[in-house]
């Protein structure tokens, strides 16, 4: 049975790692399942998903969050797999926004089921939505996701705006030889609809392990393409040093662009993020090869203090940086959909 956290607990020492990084952000994967099959994330066929009994229940997720919120965890992001394939996600949102100390609950989604769920998520108290959208062309969408569905994603974005989500952000993975021609149309689309747009470098987290440095379309490359069309991008203020994106404004004042460059310009030095996988394993990095078993504690009736000790151990063991491109770097065995992006 989950113990309620008293307000006096809010003064517990924060989650600081061996490099002085204070951890306040938790990404929670709610499922490894997905309704599309992006090549940079999942295998095309024969995906083996975790049995449902292995996934944390909403109540277990809530208990974990209640335990770590007094350590300074303030921001939550629900992800997956595709979080909206998990039934009644709005029920989890409502539980999490009610936890003392949690200031912000956000969602990353592929948008395929957003049109149906946007209103309920909003009503449950969800603050922000990121929608992954790499292209506005149906054929390229199918090439990337191995499924149809672009029109559903676009309908999802429209519905989210209609029900009152402000600051909807589009996330596009940039891939050399594939998405260069998508950059300008996406930027025009985002500017026209008052959406934020971020380009993310392709990381070696694809299930097929086909990633190669040659497929990297770096943030600098994306910036050059944008500047050829729109003129110089103006660096924006960086209110939160732990944010992964470097932000720019368009010179004409209409909209902005974020560049997330984990490969070409790693931002590990300011990382404040922890991850909880769908089956309750705590990770201190996307590229971590070690996990801390929160589910075992949650299912053995452990006290909140034990969950906090586990979380402190995880944070204490965090490496200085992910090391992509360095000698000896090995991507984790688990792919992005199994970790939670
Ligand atoms: N299914 C949801 C979605 O696609 O938004 C949430 C989970 S997905 C793993 C989270 C984010 O990770 C998405 O924006 C996706 O584009 C990104 N992503 C997946 N694989 C990636 C990779 N190998 N490199 C960079 N970004 C990746
Ligand atoms: Fe699914 Fe998101 Fe992975 Fe694409 S990136 S396969 S939508 S989990």
Map the helices and strands:
Elements: E1 25-29, H1 58-68, E2 75-79, H2 89-97, E3 104-109, H3 114-124, E4 128-132, H4 138-145, H5 150-162, E5 169-174, H6 183-192, E6 196-201, H7 219-230, E7 233-235, E8 245-250, E9 256-260, E10 273-276, E11 281-283, E12 292-293, H8 294-299, H9 304-316, H10 336-339
Parallel strand pairs: 1-2, 1-10, 2-3, 3-4, 4-5, 5-6, 6-9
Antiparallel strand pairs: 7-8, 8-9, 10-11, 11-12
Helix pairs in contact: 1-2, 1-9, 2-3, 3-5
Iron/sulfur cluster binds at residues 34, 36-38, 41-42, 80-82, 110, 132, 336-337.
Judged by helices, strands and strand pairing, the structural class is alpha/beta
The number of helical elements comes to 10
Q: How many domains, in number, for the residues?
A: 1
Rg computed from alpha carbons, rounded to a whole number of angstroms = 19 Å
CATH class label? Alpha Beta
In this entry the ligands are: S-adenosylmethionine, iron/sulfur cluster
Number of strands: 12
**Global geometry:** globular
For CATH, the homologous superfamily is named as Aldolase class I
Which CATH architecture is right?
Alpha-Beta Barrel
């Amino acid at each position: 049975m989950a113990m309620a956290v008293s307000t006096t607990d809010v003064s517990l020492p924060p989650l600081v790692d061996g490099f002085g990084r204070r951890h306040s952000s938790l990404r929670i994967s709610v499922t490894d399942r997905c309704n599309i099959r992006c090549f940079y994330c999942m295998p095309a066929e024969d995906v083996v998903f975790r049995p449902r009994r292995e996934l944390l229940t909403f109540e277990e997720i809530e208990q974990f969050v209640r335990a770590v919120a007094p350590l300074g965890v303030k921001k939550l992001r629900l992800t997956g797999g595709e979080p909206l394939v998990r039934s009644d996600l709005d029920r989890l949102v409502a539980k999490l926004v009610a936890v003392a100390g949690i200031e912000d609950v956000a969602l990353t989604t592929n948008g395929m089921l957003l049109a149906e769920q946007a209103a309920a998520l909003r009503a449950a108290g969800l603050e922000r939505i990121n929608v992954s959208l790499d292209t506005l062309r149906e054929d390229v969408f199918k090439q990337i996701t191995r499924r149809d569905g672009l029109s559903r994603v676009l309908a999802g974005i429209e519905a989210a705006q209609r029900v009152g989500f402000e600051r909807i952000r589009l996330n596009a993975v940039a891939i050399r030889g594939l998405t260069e021609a998508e950059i300008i149309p996406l930027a025009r689309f985002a500017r026209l609809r008052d959406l934020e747009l971020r380009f993310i470098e392709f990381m070696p987290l694809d299930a097929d392990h086909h990633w190669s440095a040659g497929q990297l379309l770096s943030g600098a490359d994306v910036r050059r393409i944008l500047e050829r069309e729109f003129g110089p991008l103006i660096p924006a203020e960086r209110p939160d040093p732990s944010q992964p994106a470097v932000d720019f404004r368009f010179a004409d004042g209409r909209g902005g662009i974020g560049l997330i460059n984990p490969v070409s310009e790693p931002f590990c030095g300011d990382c404040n993020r922890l991850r909880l996988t769908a089956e309750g394993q705590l990770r201190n990095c996307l590229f971590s090869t070690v996990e801390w078993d929160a589910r075992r504690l949650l299912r053995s009736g452990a006290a909140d203090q034990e969950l906090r000790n586990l979380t402190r151990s995880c944070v204490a063991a965090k490496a200085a940086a992910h090391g992509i491109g360095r000698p000896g770097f090995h991507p984790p065995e688990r792919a992005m959909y199994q970790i939670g992006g």
